[in-house]
Amino acid sequence: MTSTKPILLWDLDGTLADTAPDLTNTMNVLLQRHGRPTVPIERVRHLVGGGARLLMERGFKETGEPASEALLDQLFQEFLVHYGDHVADHSEVWPGLRDQLDRLQEMGIPMAVCTNKVEELSHKALAALDLAKYFPVVIGGDTLPVKKPDPEHLLAAVRQLGGSPDNTIMVGDSDPDIDSARAAGIASICVSFGYARVPVADLKPTRIIDHFDDFPAALKQLLPNAFAAL
Length: 230
Hints:
By secondary structure, this protein is of the alpha/beta class. 43% of the residues lie in helices and 12% in strands.
């Protein structure tokens, strides 16, 4: 039998934390290593969302000729090494988030991270940001044969937490999050301050919030019985 408790699924980059400074640093180190100019952080925020390999693919397109498949394979491995050593040098949890997670944990709400960041780096980032304690389940970009926007990325986490899609909410910041939630039949909350490449309203999430202070009200609107105590 599935749990009657609601399930919350969370994206990592741009949703739980502002990780762009460290992603930008690694990306620019590799771009310079391969003779390319750097990309400003304001631009990198809109390149994040599909994992490290796609980030480097976008970075090369931003700075000149696209990288070959062989070079992208090499860049991906180089990215894992450098970023693994600098995963949270300058990253910060978004304002107001930690209080929300504490309250949800006190309520016994099962939560998971569903991210296209590789699983090993996801665990490193969560630990460095002191967020690992909230998330017993982490589905990374390499955990399964598929990743977001494939709905199975989210549904696998729901099954591990013993829930069901109709009692689950996905919290994200960009199209892979909202598209995968929609495909899985899961409600979504999109933060407006993340790394979306288009206006978040265009993604058509179920709800949009501009600050984590607005999060309890959004939860109550989506699952009023479960979150009446917030």
